[in-house]
Amino acid sequence: MTASRAPRFGVNYTPTRGWFHHWLDFDLDEVRADLDSVADLGMDHVRVFPLWPVFQPNRTLIRTRAVEQLVQLVDAARERGLDVAVDGLQGHLSSFDFQPAWTLSWHRRNLFTDPDVTTAQARLLQTLARALAERPNFLGMTVGNEINQFSGAPHPDPDLIAPAQAEEWLRRMLRACEEGAPGRLHLHAEYDAAWYQDGHPFTPAQAARLGAVTAVHSWVFNGTAQRYGATGTATTHHAAYLIELSKAWARDPHRPVWLQEVGAPAPCVPAEGAADFATATVAGALDCEDVWGVTWWCSHDVDRALADFPDLEYSLGLLTNDRRPKPAGRAIARAIEQYRDKPPAPAPRHTALVLDAGPDEDGGPQRAACAPGGAFFEAFARLTADGARPAVVLARQAQDRAQLAARGITELVAVRDVH
User: What InterPro entries does UniProt report for this protein, alphabetically (predicted)?
Assistant: First the structure.
């Protein structure tokens, strides 16, 4: 059984005034008020998003004032007992792309392979990390928010790359973060195409092996809630499923996994069911071993005065736009109190579902089976509904007794045998 450790609880910080455009009119008093309301929920960290075009509007210009404002935000968080994780390349947020002009139209070039672009990206990541390296509440850098969505369909204008190029880019960006702030929690984070989409250049192996922890983003508007219902086992255990799926590719049997994004998107999860969904999702995630923490999306609702967001984006906050806790926020606050008073100590998952990912398991060529509606996804959900608490192993791992023993796995189940 895993030693008890209080999990980290945090939020992805969405400013109440101006959303992420607040960097254009940075108001430290407003930030402080936002962070007060976050701390009042019992959170211990926030994840923040410097907008790439605001911080690096020209390839050779990183705005000193913007970096200073990021440092001020981190210092304000420290005053409220909050640690801070910083995403470097934004990248993509809530359906909007944020690329600097020097990568677009007349200056169009590949975000992942153009040497001028990648040099500038590495410089920005290193600069942000170095600016925060001495702050005791700085957790580390995430390379970028779901930046893999630029690398292929369904993006309307993708920067196409191969898996080897994706890995080379990730290694370089992570190295830049480490050079800026040695020893911090530096990682990368993709949306679920990395786990679910055949042929996607960002792979499960990269997610589970590069960086200090594995990040998973668990969104049930990806077909999960639509297919299985808001209260279905597959929906309320989607986060746990992604956590366990990620472990199949990890070389370290106890590599930490960070549930870095999870939320209750309406109408896939009706507003009246958001609190129950939050409670069930957190409980399911913390019934997995080696979970670093849970970071909810997001802190505050988006101001409806702002135009053109998909409707679900406006209501994802744990707090209203005027900083009042919502039912889901109160549910998360109760979970924080519960798990800090009695940290979870999940037993090993003795039963493992065997995933045949094809001959190139590291490349994940048969990922569609893992997606909602896929045979592997449905077998995992059925086992979970039956109380089996399944783990996941790749077919080749099924022969590795040492690896199975390290994870406490004593029984293997084939997908075809799950009814």
Answer: GH (IPR017853)
Q: How far apart are CA 262 and CA 281, in angstroms?
A: 9
Find the helix or strand (DSSP H, E) in which 296 lies. Answer: strand 291-296
Same domain membership, residue 410 and residue 325? no
SS3 content of the chain, % helix, strand, coil (to 5): 45, 15, 40
Q: Which tens digits make up the pLDDT trace of 3-14?
A: 457 899 999 999
Q: What angle do CA 49, 324, 31 make, to 5 degrees?
A: 35
Q: How far apart are the first and last CA of the chain?
A: 29
Distance, in Å, from the CA atom of 1 to the CA atom of 81, rounded to the nearest integer, reads 30
> Do 61 and 160 fall within a single domain?
yes
Strand 8-12 to 291-296 pairing:
parallel
19 pLDDT exceeds 80?
Answer: yes
pLDDT (tens digit, 9 = 90+) per residue, 235-273? Answer: 999 999 999 999 999 999 999 999 999 999 999 999 999
Closest by Cα among 187, 175, 199, 107 to 147:
187
The CA distance from 259 to 214, in Å, is 9
Last residue of a domain, one of 305, 322, 341: 341
Cβ–Cβ under 8 Å, residues 123 and 55: no
- Whole-structure pTM value: 0.97
User: Using an 8 Å Cβ cutoff, are 203 and 166 in contact?
Assistant: yes
pLDDT of residue 4: 59
Enclosing domain of residue 375: 351-417
The tens digit of pLDDT for each residue in 354-410 reads 999 887 888 777 899 999 999 999 999 999 999 999 999 999 989 899 999 999 999
Are residues 159 and 123 both part of a single domain? yes
Q: How buried is residue 386: exposed, middle or buried, by Cβ count under 10 Å (0-12/13-18/19+)?
A: exposed
Return mean pLDDT, the chain.
96
Number of domains in the chain: 2
Asked whether 245 and 370 are in contact (CB, 8 A), the reply is yes
Report d(CA 306, CA 7) in Å as an integer: 34
